[in-house]
């Protein structure tokens, strides 16, 4: 288990910590809102590190003042995708930054199989390496049931 | 604190709006055993005083706010003794004729509830049917939820709420918005306060066809019409706010004006007063404008003369109706 020592995907902030409770998530969201970030909820069933763009769950939430609104959206997403990866992202619209300032996973599938290293033999004795996520072995509709 | 250098349209800057009145730290309150001690630590007393000072008339509203503030204080004391203190349901319904101050009070209510510690952020989101109800199937729920998310931690003010329900069209999407509202009003009572507002008779019809809504609203506040004396007080308050004042006899003229205006159709209480004052300001401006050589003093620029008031059409109409002896 070299690629996945803890048996869990480590992407974004806080991913080496135990899962955040809802109260802790609220505090993080509150911090972002205080800095003027816009939060959004995204989900995915493929945790491959290069899978940058996850599915958006609804629109990014500009104009919010309180973490309860984000939590409300997050809980709806958890209800729809209980066994997907769900992450919260904070968009900083400051000129010159205009990108994601915070991102952390708030929901994981019960079983995270991790990744395998795939070797491809190429011209001559060249080897090409790539990472393959076991989670994507099942067809798309059945992955979340794993 | 990083503030964005430019803003996306519609984005509110969440930072920098930290209200001046933060709820008092819990530790000082934990040992309070008298009402006086709690009042000293919280904003409750100041809120009540301010309301008495700033709002004219509106006795039922003031007394209800006083009750809510009192409950907060007593709950604090109960909590200190280890008794259950449950946050009350604060959803409200404001009914009253046009211009009786429903929106104004709702704005203040957001600040008041924040200072009393019942809502976390204390902002007000004012919406009407258009903001909640969508155009096609599946459009309403996200729209309503969007508004609710924005209102979290504050007050959601739904003006003319009876438009949400259109009994004449059974496929109207308003019902869907009402259902989502009800659900959130029930489950997230701590997160937001919903205030519905509208004219009395139509709100009654609305509640009759949505009994669930009526029972989830704890406070039904009626806004009475203002008396003529109160309207004149309001007028003076409005003028003072904009650095204007009545000149000699202008106040009396305005009292007469209000007396006539009340009897005429489409009278909208404080709103009519504001419109009348705006028109008087226009007349004052053109009176001063006519003489372009004169050096105008501060006094002249900030005074509404009797003639500015008397020129109103209301006097002519009233004069014509009551006969020549009333003509002024």
Structural features, described:
The complex is a heterodimer of chains A (146) and B (328). With 146 residues, chain A is an alpha+beta fold. Chain A has 3 helices and 6 strands; from the N terminus they run H-E-E-H-E-E-E-E-H. In chain A, the strands form 2 sheets. A 4-stranded antiparallel beta sheet of chain A has the order 2-1-3-4. A two-stranded antiparallel ribbon of chain A has the order 5-6. The model of chain A has no long low-confidence stretch (mean pLDDT 90). By secondary structure, chain B is α/β, with parallel strands linked by helices. Helices cover 52% and strands 9% of the residues of chain B. In chain B, the strands form 2 sheets. A 5-stranded parallel beta sheet of chain B has the order 2-3-4-1-5, sandwiched between helices. Chain B has a two-stranded parallel ribbon with strand order 6-7. In chain B, helix 8 links the parallel strand 3 and strand 4. In chain B, helix 11 crosses helix 12. The longest helix of chain B is centred in the first third of the chain and has 22 residues. Chain B is globular and about 70 Å long. At the A-B interface, strand 2 and helix 2 of A face helix 7 of B.
């Amino acid at each position: 288990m070299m690629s996945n020592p803890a048996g869990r995907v480590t992407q974004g902030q806080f991913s080496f910590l135990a899962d955040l409770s809802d109260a802790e998530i609220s505090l993080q969201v509150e911090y972002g809102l205080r800095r003027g970030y816009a939060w959004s909820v995204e989900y995915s069933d493929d945790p491959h590190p290069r899978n940058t763009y996850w599915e958006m769950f609804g629109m990014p939430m500009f104009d919010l003042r309180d973490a309860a609104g984000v939590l409300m959206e997050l809980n709806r997403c958890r209800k729809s995708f209980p066994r997907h990866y769900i992450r919260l992202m904070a968009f900083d619209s400051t000129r010159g930054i205009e990108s994601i300032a915070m991102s952390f996973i708030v929901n994981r599938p019960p079983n995270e199989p991790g990744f395998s290293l795939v070797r491809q033999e190429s011209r001559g004795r060249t080897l090409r390496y790539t990472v393959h996520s076991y989670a994507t072995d099942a067809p798309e509709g059945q992955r979340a049931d794993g | 604190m990083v503030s964005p250098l430019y803003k996306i349209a519609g984005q509110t800057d969440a930072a920098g709006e930290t209200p001046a009145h933060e709820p008092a730290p819990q530790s000082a309150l934990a040992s309070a055993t008298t009402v006086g001690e709690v009042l000293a630590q919280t904003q409750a007393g100041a809120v009540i005083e301010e309301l008495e000072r700033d709002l004219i008339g509106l006795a039922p509203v003031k007394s209800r706010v006083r009750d809510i503030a009192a409950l907060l204080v007593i709950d604090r004391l109960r909590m200190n003794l280890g008794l259950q203190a449950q946050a009350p349901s604060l959803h409200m319904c404001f009914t009253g004729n046009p211009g009786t101050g429903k929106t104004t009070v709702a704005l203040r209510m957001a600040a008041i509830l924040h200072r009393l510690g019942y809502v976390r952020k204390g902002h007000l989101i004012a919406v009407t049917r258009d903001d909640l109800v969508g155009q096609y199937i599946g459009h309403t729920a996200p729209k309503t939820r969007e508004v609710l998310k924005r209102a979290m931690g504050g007050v959601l003010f739904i003006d003319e709420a009876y438009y949400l329900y259109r009994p004449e069209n059974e496929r109207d999407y308003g019902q869907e918005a009402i259902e989502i509202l009800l659900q959130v009003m029930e489950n997230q009572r701590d997160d937001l306060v919903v205030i519905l507002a509208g004219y009395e008779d139509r709100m009654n019809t609305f509640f009759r066809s949505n009994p669930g809504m009526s029972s989830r609203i704890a406070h039904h506040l009626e806004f009475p019409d203002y008396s003529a004396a109160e309207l004149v007080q309001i007028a003076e308050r409005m003028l003072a706010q904009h650095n204007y004042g009545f000149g000699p006899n202008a106040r009396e003229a305005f009292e007469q004006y209000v007396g006539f205006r009340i009897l005429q159709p489409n009278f909208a209480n404080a709103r009519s007063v504001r419109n009348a004052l705006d028109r008087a300001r226009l007349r004052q401006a053109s009176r001063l404008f006519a003489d372009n050589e004169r050096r105008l003093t501060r006094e002249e620029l900030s005074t509404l003369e009797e003639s500015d008031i008397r020129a109103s059409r209301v006097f002519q109409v009233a004069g014509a109706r009551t006969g020549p002896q009333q003509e002024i």
